[in-house]
C-alpha cells in the first residue's frame, strides 16, 4: 500500500521518499485516512485545440469521494493539505495515478499532455524532482505527456531551488504552464528566464468577454504576450459560444471549460477521447 510505503520506508523500489513523520501530527486525521483508504479520485477536464477543433489533452483535477458527504471539490480540502504539508504525499499519489492511467488514455487516442497542478508547498520537499523522475520511469511515462501547472506565487519566491527544480524537470521533457495567469504577481523577467511553455488565462477575465472592455483588453494582451514570447495560451472557464468566438477571433490556442466539458471521471474522459478520435477520422 502506498501509505505503508511512505510510513515504513521499506519500499524496495524507493520511488517515493519516506514521509517526514515529524510533520504528521499536523495532518488532518480525516484527510490522512482518506489518502490511506484511497478515497481520492482524479477527474479530467479536456483541453480543446481551437485550430484542430479536437481534444489536445486534459487537466487532472482532484476530488474526494467522502464516504458520507459524497463528492468533495478541492477548494474544501486542498488548502488544509497545503497548510499541513499533506499535499506532498498526496501530490505523489496524484502523479502516480496519472502514470497508471496514461496507457488507457493513449489507447483511447490521447494526443497531448495531462496537466497536473503543483502547489508551492510541494517545492519545499527537496525530493520533488528526483521523485517525479522516478515515478515517470516506474510508470514508463513519456515525459512529453506530462505538464505541471504552477501559480505565480510558486514562481515569485526567490528560492533558487524552485527554479532549479523546474529547469531540471524541464530538461527531461516535462512542460510547465502558468495557471490563473494575471491574478498573481508575475514578473515578466521570470516568464523569460523560466521554461514556461504555456499561459493559462484566468477564468475571471474570460468571464467578462465579450462585453467588458477591460477584460477584453486584458485577454487580448495576454494572448499577444504569450505569442510574442513564443508560448501557447489557454483560456480557462469558457462557458458559452460568445466567449469561444471572441477567443477564436483573437487567436487563442486552446480552451478549457464547461462549454465543452466539465471535469469528468476517467471512464467518461476515455469515452470522450474515443468519440473525439472517431470524429477526427471522418
Ligand atoms: P485550477 O487549477 O485553476 O482549475 C480550474 C478550476 O476551474 C477547476 O475547479 C475546474 O473544475 C473549474 N472550471 C473549469 N472550467 C470551468 C467553467 O467553465 N466554469 C466554472 N465555473 N468553473 C470551471 P476545481 O476542480 O474545483 O479545482 C479548483 C482548484 O483546486 C484548481 O484550480 C487548483 O488550484 C486546485 N486543484 C485541483 N486539483 C488539484 C490537484 O490535483 N493538486 C493541487 N495541488 N491542486 C489542485
Ligand atoms: Mg490548474
Ligand atoms: Mg486556473
Ligand atoms: Mg484556480
Automatic annotation (TrEMBL):
It comes from the Bacteria. Residues 24-277 form the EAL domain. Transmembrane segments: none annotated. This is EAL domain, c-di-GMP-specific phosphodiesterase class I (Or its enzymatically inactive variant). It comes from Marinobacterium sediminicola. The lineage of its organism: Bacteria, Pseudomonadati, Pseudomonadota, Gammaproteobacteria, Oceanospirillales. The chain holds residues 128 to 409 of 409 of the full protein.
